[in-house]
């Protein structure tokens, strides 16, 4: 990954996204259009959210949520994890429009998008439904349907349709000036092969906010920006290998996992008395399904992702099938706390990507 390029991209996208969502917000609160007249429930929810905080905070929160969603869709595109086997955000090589948009435009609508309004989509493109930019409006409709589909498997990141975050989705998502364009051109498929990209994008996205608030009396909504820092991979490995790994090796000192843990530190020599006390409290066997690990400040999930890998190795050592391991780890072994809900979205997404790589049907299992 070119971290300098990703840093520039995340900072610039944050600014652009907030500007476009602010414009969309003003339109939603002041305009009287056919589209908005049918969205009174979402508009009322949006106004309540503003009254409870401020316009600025709502824009900041929704901008970050859409940044997360675009990043997730870009990674799903690169890894070919969409069940409809077509890229949602990015085009095929040599094309300019997203692959799924091209398919749906010629009538090839995936069966997974059962609630997609095909008639409205075609009427927007044909001009039967007036729009300042018919193609952009049709793609926006399709993107919302895709997000609504992903709500079933990853509701923590993709809220259902009619939510106020969907209402503030920017209008322009196809032109070179759109916020979506950077995800297409500045992030490569190779970048997306490493799930660490989630953590780096998160840190770069909040970096400007961190500079604004660091060293000052911090408001509650600014605590994440002031306190969160992406933990380097070697430190993460050290922490996981000398906690979960050490616990496993205490019971199974001949485990081949020791050779895979480059940052594991052998216990120091102890007296006979201490060794006797350690033996008394060390279980003679461990059930992988009963082991738990919690990250009390999980950020974008870097430590939990590393713990997933070690848990997987433990399960495989005990004879479990790899396709069964993902759901077991996600439901039984890993826990996290996080003060920032947008960071927690990324933790959940990163872990789902790890699980999906091991189990092709993970998204269908209701994890």
- The helix tally amounts to 18
What is the approximate shape? globular
DSSP strand count: 2
Q: What is the first-to-last residue Cα distance? A: 30 Å
The helix/strand order is: HHHHHHHHHHHHHHHEHHEH
Q: In order across it, which strands form the biggest sheet? A: 1-2
- Percent helix range: 55-70%
> Into which percentage range does the β-strand content fall?
under 5%
Query: Major β-sheet, in short?
Result: 2 strands, parallel
Mean pLDDT over the full residue set: 90
Low-confidence segments, given as residue ranges, are: none
Structural class, from secondary structure content? mainly alpha
Specify Rg, calculated over alpha carbons: 23 Å
Q: Which secondary structure elements does this structure contain, and how are they paired or packed?
A:
Blueprint: H1 3-30, H2 34-37, H3 40-52, H4 55-79, H5 99-105, H6 118-126, H7 134-150, H8 164-167, H9 179-185, H10 189-192, H11 196-213, H12 223-227, H13 233-241, H14 244-251, H15 272-281, E1 293-295, H16 302-317, H17 322-333, E2 334-336, H18 341-358
Parallel strand pairs: 1-2
Report on this model:
With 367 residues, the protein is mostly helical. Helix content is 58%, strand content 2%. The chain has helices at 3-30, 34-37, 40-52, 55-79, 99-105, 118-126, 134-150, 164-167, 179-185, 189-192, 196-213, 223-227, 233-241, 244-251, 272-281, 302-317, 322-333, 341-358, and strands spanning 293-295, 334-336. A two-stranded parallel sheet has the order 1-2. α4 runs parallel beside α18. The chain starts with a helix and ends in a 9-residue tail after the last helix. The mean pLDDT is 90.
């Amino acid at each position: 990954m070119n971290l300098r390029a990703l840093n520039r991209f995340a900072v610039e996208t944050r600014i652009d996204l907030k500007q476009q969502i602010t414009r969309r917000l003003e339109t939603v609160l002041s305009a009287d259009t056919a589209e908005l007249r049918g969205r009174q429930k979402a508009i009322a929810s949006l106004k309540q959210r503003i009254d409870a905080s401020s316009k600025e905070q709502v824009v900041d929160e929704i901008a970050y949520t859409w940044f997360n969603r675009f990043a997730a869709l870009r990674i799903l595109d690169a890894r070919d994890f969409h069940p409809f086997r077509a890229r949602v955000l990015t085009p095929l090589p040599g094309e300019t429009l997203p692959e799924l948009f091209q398919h749906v435009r010629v009538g090839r609508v995936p069966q997974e998008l059962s609630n997609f309004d095909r008639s409205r989509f075609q009427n927007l493109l044909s001009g039967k439904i007036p729009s300042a930019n018919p193609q952009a409006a049709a793609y926006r409709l399709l993107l919302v349907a895709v997000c609504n589909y992903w709500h079933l498997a990853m509701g923590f990141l993709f809220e259902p349709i009619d939510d106020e975050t969907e209402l503030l989705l920017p209008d322009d998502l196809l032109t070179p000036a759109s916020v979506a364009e950077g995800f297409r051109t500045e992030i490569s498929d190779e970048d997306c092969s490493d799930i660490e990209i989630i953590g780096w994008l998160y840190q770069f996205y909040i970096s400007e906010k961190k500079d604004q608030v660091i060293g000052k009396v911090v408001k509650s909504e600014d605590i994440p920006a002031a306190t969160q820092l992406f933990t380097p991979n070697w430190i993460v490995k050290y922490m996981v290998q000398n906690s979960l790994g050490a616990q496993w090796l205490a019971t199974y000192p001949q485990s081949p996992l020791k050779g895979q843990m480059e940052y594991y530190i052998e216990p120091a020599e102890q007296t006979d008395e201490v060794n006797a006390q350690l033996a008394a409290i060390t279980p003679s066997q461990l059930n992988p399904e009963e082991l738990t690990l919690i990250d009390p400040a999980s950020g974008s999930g870097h430590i939990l992702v590393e713990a997933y890998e070690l848990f997987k190795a433990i399960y495989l050592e005990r004879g479990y099938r790899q396709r069964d391991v993902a759901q077991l780890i996600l439901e039984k072994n890993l826990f996290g706390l996080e003060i920032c809900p947008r960071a927690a979205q990324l933790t959940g997404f990163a872990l789902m990507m790890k699980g999906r790589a091991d189990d092709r049907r993970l998204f269908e299992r209701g994890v």
